[in-house]
Amino acid sequence: MNDFLRVYRRGEDGTLTFREAWYDAADGQFVVNHGTVGHRSTTQETGGFGPEEAPGLLAAFAEQCAADGYVELEPGEQSWVVAQYTLKSADGTDRDRYLEGKAKEVLAEHLAWRGLGTVERSEFVPHRLNIYLLSPDPVKAVGAVKTCLREAKLDFTKLSIGVAPYAELSAIRQKHPMPAKGTFSLD
Fold first, then answer.
1. Is pLDDT above 70 for 177?
2. Which residues 6+ apart lie within 8 Å of 158 measured at CB?
3. Which of 20, 123, 157, 185 maximizes the CB count within 10 A of its CB?
4. What is the C-alpha to C-alpha distance for residues 58 and 38, in angstroms, rounded to an integer?
5. What's the confidence (pLDDT) of residue 2?
6. Of 98, 90, 117, which is closest to residue 155 (Cα–Cα)?
């Protein structure tokens, strides 16, 4: 069993909620985080557990979530959200590599606490830095990416964001800034 589990459920009104749990070995705590996708979640920590108890705690959590109608989402049930920075040089500079690391760090944290997805990878292509995110709600993820990177003061004016279905990354369409001027290219 994994040492981390994130599951989702869509309510009758269409609202997507999530639950996640993990064992924090450093503190001996079992952590449960839950909320409505796109909103800051609520966290509950229970301490005093040893690492040998973690698999049983996660199994019990998974069982309760399944009973409540929560399921793990397959990648194909999610969408790609690509945060793209325009760079001054073809290969990127040390400053651009710092931007890559910092942007991935703040995005991973911001998205995780809102159930909005994960940072999957990044790449430098000529004159661009692409950061690939996988999200169950791309509309809310686009808003979260803009908010997160603006608040972190990470070159927001050089940012574009595109969205594509998981299986059709080549069908990516620009969602920020709007209206789109030209095509959104990953190359």
1. yes
2. 85, 86, 87
3. 20
4. 24
5. 55
6. 98
Of the candidates 87, 81, 108, the residue with the CA atom closest to the CA atom of residue 164? 81
Q: Put residue 115 in one of left, alpha, beta given phi > 0 → left and psi -120 to 50 → alpha.
A: left
Tokens of 102: 């910092």
Residues with Cβ within 8 Å of 151's Cβ and at least 6 positions away in sequence, in order, are: none
Write out the two tokens for 140: 């809310």
> Is-contact 133 110, C-beta < 8 A?
no
In the sheet that 173-176 helps form, which strands lie side by side, from edge to edge? 118-125, 128-135, 79-86, 159-165, 173-176
pLDDT tens-digit map of 29-81: 999 999 999 999 999 988 888 889 999 999 999 999 999 999 999 999 999 99
Ramachandran area for residue 125 (φ above 0: left; ψ -120 to 50: alpha; else beta): beta
Return the SS3 of 181. coil
